[in-house]
Amino acid sequence: MSRKYKDVWPVASFVILSALLSGGLTAFAQGPGQRIPLPPIPIKGDTTHTLSRHFTMATAAKKAPDAKGFIQRWLVLEPVKKDIVRNNIFTDNYLKTTFSTDNFSPDYTTVPKNGETVNVGNQQLKWYALDSKAFNVNLYHFTYAINKPKYGILVWLVTVIDSPEEIKNVRLAAGCNSGSMWWLNGQEALLLSGDRDMIADNGTSARLTLKKGRNIIRGAVINGPGMANFCVRFLDEKGAPVKNLSISTE
Predict the structure, then answer these.
(1) How far is the C-alpha of 138 from the C-alpha of 126, rounded, in Å?
(2) pTM of the predicted structure, to 2 decimals
């Protein structure tokens, strides 16, 4: 082999190996759901702690899901501070027990009001009615903006879905980081346990029925170290996003 090719071969090998590793990591990262690109997570140079960077305040006007069916309007409660040092503790039993204990209301169809305060244990927490500017709701950005704890948190969520007709055989599809639980009209719909990445449709419920008119989604997202965020949408019986809906916080 000539000196010329001897010099080039190590560089070419490194490039090929890097490409293979990169492709492999991406493939393994896909998981069972869809890896939809997330907005940048690091907050660089932002010392203002303002919600307007990633959210807008929800108005009285009803809002449709985004182009892919994701629900961007939520009532978000200030985080319940939890002493969580690792995320592998999020078993089914742990999540159900914690969500039952650290609950703002035993009525899973209640809809709080924007600005209302509630007590969870010895913590007094405030509700915010927000529209996310992204398809997902980044709770790290939310807690940073309101200058509350960003790690070791439990965040409660509520939104109201108005359907123009009864829709049977839909599935509630969610992704979160790390554990979460979701209820539809007061009934448990989906539990995502374990230490997860936020991948769209990472978990889907059994077949559900959206009632004609008002439907209430309640969610709880819990996380220790690392980022906390989630996304939710409904899929029809063919797996297509349900978009003919109106979303409100009242």
Answers:
(1) 18
(2) 0.82
Average pLDDT of the residues of the chain = 86
Contacts 24+ apart (CB under 8 A), 64-69: 64/243, 64/245, 64/246, 64/247, 65/233, 65/241, 65/242, 65/243, 65/245, 65/247, 66/135, 67/243, 68/36, 68/135, 68/233, 68/241, 69/233, 69/234, 69/235, 69/241, 69/242, 69/243
For the beta carbon of residue 52, count every other beta carbon within 10 angstroms: 10
10 Å CB burial of residue 243 (0-12, 13-18, 19+) is middle
- Secondary structure element (H or E) that encloses residue 221, with its range: strand 213-223
- What's the pLDDT tens digit per position in 165-222? 999 999 999 999 989 999 999 999 999 999 999 999 999 999 999 999 999 999 999 9
Instruction: Decide: 205 and 219 in contact? Cβ < 8 Å.
Output: no
24-43: pLDDT as tens digits:
332 223 334 555 555 555 55
